[in-house]
Design goal:
Strand content: 15-25%
Shape: globular
CATH architecture of the largest domain: 3-Layer(aba) Sandwich
CATH class of the largest domain: Alpha Beta
Low-confidence stretches: 126-131
Radius of gyration: 21 Å
Oligomer: single chain
Number of strands: 13
Strand order of the largest sheet: 8-9-7-10-6-11-12-13
Number of domains: 2
């Protein structure tokens, strides 16, 4: 068993602040790495691979936003949690850092240390770091609605659970303001994303989700349903999402997250830590144009093309752009094209049945299974980097 303490890199130009953090973090059992300059912090992060970075955005040599961007764009550090600890109460700076992938933003104060010490276990999930437990995370998103993203997420999860019977598969519906997978699978339980986010982090551990996340009958996976309505979505405690995702990753072999077209500062950190990013592409011109824009943005945020799985879904008919035309317009290679399934998807969804159960001999079902296997292989490969 690896008993090495969790390492924290402190990048802070203020000697008093740096020394105080060092003493208190070491008292809490953490190993501390120090960097008084941004350039030194980058070198240490890439070389030493700390478990977390505490970054003062006001550095004497390099702006904190640039440091964060470079950390997120490098594969070695793209998934390392970063906490900004700033002496400034500037909402513009805060929003810029959070949008660039910072996990949290704290202001230096008498409460800052206790806030940081409470935050660290939630970001890292200590048990997962020490024992190396982490499931494969696959996110599903699209640049435009109407591409069948939620249905694909649910049915590919079904394929994984059905074909890999000894694995534990979980689905998270993070589509806002209204989740859609519950209606597809016939989910009737009260637990959902909003109710879970209201619970104390002390309660919602990996063990909690392993024992309590509802298993959907006939679908071979466990589901954390999305918000049931816009009013509930307004009550969602967004700062709890990262901890919930981490806890579920610790307790399941595969975790599939449906983001719909919800690309935002809320979903970006989840995309950045994903082992496979399934980008669902429709065959119409406007979706292709928007997909290219989304992909260019994801690249700027450190998403490696090796983790990307562009999936063409002919959800509305046979007409539209060809695979080669889509590849040229989106700037990326389509991994697989799902054939037009006519009314099969609507029939299956209305009956809350998986496609592979309702239409087991349909050619589209075999293609769906192939997509599930390819995405799983991509995630496994990325997981070992």
């Amino acid at each position: 068993m690896n008993t090495n303490p969790i390492s924290i890199l402190v990048i802070d130009g203020d000697a008093v602040s740096r020394n105080y953090l060092t003493v208190m973090l070491r008292k809490s059992g953490y190993a501390v790495l120090l960097a008084p300059l941004g350039r030194e912090g980058l070198i240490s992060a890439w070389k030493d691979r700390p478990d977390i970075v505490v970054l003062d955005p006001e550095l004497p040599d390099v702006p904190g936003l640039e440091i964060l961007t470079r950390l997120r764009q490098d594969r070695r550090t793209s998934k390392i949690p970063v906490v900004a600890l700033s002496s400034r109460q500037d909402s513009q700076d805060k929003n810029a850092l959070l949008s660039a992938g910072c996990n949290d933003y704290l202001t230096k104060s008498s409460q800052a240390l206790s806030q940081l010490l409470e935050l660290i276990p939630r970001l890292l999930r200590e048990e997962s770091i020490i024992h190396g437990k982490r499931g494969i995370l696959e996110v599903f998103l699209s640049a435009k609605g109407g591409t069948g993203t939620s249905s694909l997420c649910a049915n590919i999860a079904m394929c994984l659970g059905h074909e890999k019977i000894e694995t534990r598969v979980a689905v998270m519906d993070l589509v806002l303001p209204i989740g859609s997978i519950a209606d597809i699978v016939g989910y009737t339980y009260k637990m959902n994303l909003v109710t879970v986010a209201k619970e104390s982090p002390v309660l919602t551990t990996a063990a909690y989700f392993k024992d309590n996340l509802p298993r959907v009958p006939n679908w071979y996976f466990h589901l954390l349903a999305g918000s049931p309505d816009p009013e509930s979505a307004n009550q969602l405690e967004v700062n709890r999402l990262d901890g919930i995702v981490n806890a579920i990753i610790e307790s399941y072999d595969y975790v599939l997250v449906d983001l719909g077209r919800g690309l935002s500062r809320i979903s970006l950190p989840i995309i950045q830590k994903a082992d496979a990013v399934v980008l669902v592409v429709g065959s119409d011109l406007s979706t292709a144009i928007l997909t290219r824009t989304v992909w260019e943005y994801l690249k700027s945020q450190g998403i490696d093309q090796k983790r990307l799985y562009p999936l063409q879904n002919r959800a509305v008919g046979l007409e539209g752009l060809t695979k080669s035309e889509l590849e040229k317009m989106t700037g990326t290679q389509i991994r697989l094209t799902l054939p037009y399934m006519s009314g099969n998807v609507t029939v299956a969804n209305n009956r809350h049945e998986p496609l592979i159960s309702k239409f087991p001999n349909d050619s589209s079902t075999f293609t769906l299974k192939e997509a599930a296997n390819q995405i799983a292989e991509l995630g496994q490969h990325s997981h070992t980097w």
